[in-house]
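Help wanted!
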Amino acid sequence: MRSWLAALVPVFAATFALAQPATDGRRTGYQDMSPALQQMEDDDSANPGMLFVQMGEALWRQKTGGADKACADCHADGSMKGVAARYPAIPAKGDKPVDIEGRINLCRTGQQKAEALRPESEDLLALTAYVVQQSRGEPIAPPDDPRLAPMRADGEKIFKQRQGQLNLSCANCHDDNAGKKLAGATIPQAHPTAYPVYRLEWQTLGSLKRRLRGCLIGIRAEPYEVGAPQWVSLELYLMSRARGMRLEGVGVRP
Amino acid sequence: MANVMVNAPKTARKGEVVQIKAIVLHPMETGYRVGTNGQMIPRNIIERFTATWNGEEIFDMKFSPAIAANPFVTFFATASESGKIGLRWKGDNDFDVEHSVDIAVE
Amino acid sequence: MSGRRDFLAGAAASVVLLPAAAWASPDSLALAIREVVGDKELREGKVKLDIPPLVENGNTVPLTVSVDSPMTDADFVKAIHVFNEKNPQPHVFSATLKPRNGKAMISTRIKLADAQKVVAVAETGAGEFWTASANVIVTIAACIEEPS
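Answered by r_m:
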């Protein structure tokens, strides 16, 4: 099935995005964006994602649930610094890793005695944005927990495995062809430094899972179910691949 | 209000020209897109954005469907006296959101 | 899964929803400008239109219009209008201003359906009309991309 590969070659125009000098060659999608969008992300008074951070802060301070507790009642201001940089992680009394959204819902149901927030709902995105924003500028620091190793390895396997009707792996684009153009857009290396992200194509804030889902649909693969472990496994691998890169907080992307 | 973000100085000198920035959560659905069900998604936009300074109108902007989602607007105003800068967005489906910020003018 | 744009086919393969004649064109742009300006002379100058020449996504294009004006009672900008050439309709926004704005400068973010010209028209208190325009190339268009 290699004939389609030849057909794809003209699609990958051999243009390389200007690379900023980096000691290990890793680049974020921010570096691939136009100055206008970089400015939009950098300016807190203009970044549309900051509206969600503000909404998230209001929710963070709001008492809710059967326990009538706010997140702020347990978590002092400043205590979330560094948290997003070391997620996904296994919660204290659990055995499966969760991402930030999963951790927020564990608190909602377990501590606040409230209903879990729906995936991609405005409230969950806002709270996630608020938590992630507290780690803006922090280097990504996946935890050393040995229990995470098999899931992370699973994530790496998914990343490198060809799938879908187009028989492409994530690595085909994001490792082998990052920097080249695809339908006018620069292929990023796909480091999750800016999630949840205000993506212009969505005209709203969205999670990493939403973006991964879009990629899977794009290569004509069946996306995993909501709540499937593969999302977290992939994120575990992506975060370890991006180890040391700084989190942007809520970013802006085309 | 949680779904509005305003950036304006908290203090200003009398006569100083200050910049006011505001963003409001709104899908600004143009009415020109077809949804995944094959049906046209109905138009749902903000039509008008107005600003007042202690009740006196200082800015009035008519939006079209060409204004991007979660509309962001910046404009300028001369600081006259302390009080409230009021902002209001009105549009389709009885959308009517007001928000105000305080400013101290010396 | 339906509704997802096929990124390999490129943006050019997007579906046009309305007959092309129904969308804005250089004629409807000219008409929209005429509705504002009437028979008065439309002069180039005083207006600065800041918009990136190439945008990745037409859904959110930053734009700043500024007009060189002292904004005094004797000499001020009373309205700023922005138009487009190829969206489904030619208007972008209209804003009314007064001397107390102090500075005739507005920033916002707009949608552009295709590579096209954007035109800003400023009307002064004395009834003069000034204009500037800019051409923008849009990699991924607004309006004609299906939601995903």
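OP: Thanks! One thing I noticed: Residues 90 and 187 of chain A are 32 Å apart (CA to CA).
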